[in-house]
Amino acid sequence: MSTRDGRVPPREIVRLALPALPVLAAEPLYVLVDTAVVGSLGALPLAGLAVAGVMFAQVTSQLTFLSYGTTARAARLHGAGRRSEAVGEGVQATWLALAVGVVVLVVGQLIAAPVAGALGGSDDIAAAAVSWLRIALFGAPLVLVTLAGNGWMRGVHDTARPMRYVLAGNGLSAVACPMLVHGVGGWDGWGLEGSAVANVGAQVVVAGLFLAALLREKAAAPAVDPVSLRPHWTLIRAQLGLGRDLVLRSLAFQACFLSATAVAARFGAPSVAAHQIVLQLWVFQSLTLDAVAIAAQALIGSALGAGGVDRARAVAGQIARYGTVIGCLCGVVFAALFFVLPGVFTQDAAVLAVVPIAWWFFVALQPVGGLVFALDGVLLGAGDAAFLRTTTLLSAALGFLPLIWLSLVFGWGLAGIWAGLALFMLGRLVAVTTRTRSGRWAVAGAVRP
């Protein structure tokens, strides 16, 4: 359904984006709740959570191709009227998620201590991080199954069921987390480790719901167009081809954010704790802005799968405008919340004294992030992963990483770290706007050549 000039009705974008919003926000929101719960234990447990949280984030952020790559491929097939094949992309992504998740679990247990020691800056912070991470890693295969499930459902324009699944799991976990951390009745709780147990519990529930959804799709598929639950190596190899570019792109993100946390830790527990608070708000807000990008991925992929190049370009223009407006509004909201929100996460005076250094960078970057994340969705929906890979690597190598490490050498602290993030985002802004205007990303077909 589209208007005369090729655009889609705003209500269609809202239909896809609105349910995607709580899905995208659920995990960072849970981490924010986790941060607030653990923050009441003091600066050291919060610093340990900061280091461990960044390490565990590699599981989701480094392997987002299971979600974004699957959406791009499934949406094209859905647009071409081949639903069972679109669901089949989800089946293969789920097999891949389980295999990779087991590897992550085993390798993660082996390297948890040395990596936490390198990032933590002190033995106490590293020990706290490892105690959380060893438990949380058992949820890695389940997190990846959830990524795959979100991917294929978005591809077939179903963002409502993922919303229900994710809210169910994370809602239960948010209730359990304070009890597991601080105890209830006469039980003192498990402290920092309790938050990791609550995290794994949420992942069990959500992954189970996505697996059940695949079984229902198989049962409902017509006999002439069945959904196979067996692994098909040709499709898995094709997904890995697209995934290669997205993994390299994610590597740039992770090199930057791991370096930022490592450098912040060198300035002491208050600095890394303040960085954790603002960084998690950044992650939360980035994924919130991605709700519009999720709609873009599904609509752009379906339009190109059906051969509608002009429609895809018109939708890209809509998405860019919506993302910019939302980013500006978010900047205003977070500026107004400066005097209230940091105190929700900690009452430590030393931490609160450092928070403003990063806060105003965070606020100023909201409009930039709104446009960048929206156009990322356009290009991801088109399967233009190679371009995103290259430009993200360049922006990281020329912008973010140099300023992070110069901050350590010259003692610039969080100001230097967040200035690096600003330069990184501006580099990406130039790249994605130029690419979108060129139209070279709009390649028609059920499968991108």
TrEMBL record:
One of the record's GO molecular function terms: antiporter activity
GO cellular component: plasma membrane
InterPro entries: DinF-like (IPR044644), MATE_fam (IPR002528), MdtK-like (IPR048279)
Transmembrane as UniProt keyword: yes
TM stretches of this protein: 12-33, 45-69, 90-112, 132-153, 165-184, 196-215, 246-269, 281-307, 319-345, 357-379, 386-406, 412-431
Main localization (coarse): membrane
Compartments it resides in: Cell membrane
Alphabetically ordered keywords of this record: Cell membrane, Membrane, Transmembrane, Transmembrane helix, Transport
Membrane topology qualifier: Multi-pass membrane protein
Classification via Pfam families: MatE
PANTHER family: PROTEIN DETOXIFICATION 44, CHLOROPLASTIC, PROTEIN DETOXIFICATION 44, CHLOROPLASTIC-RELATED
NCBIfam families: matE
Family, similarity comment: Belongs to the multi antimicrobial extrusion (MATE) (TC 2.A.66.1) family.
Protein name (database record): MATE family efflux transporter
Lineage per the UniProt record: Bacteria, Bacillati, Actinomycetota, Actinomycetes, Pseudonocardiales
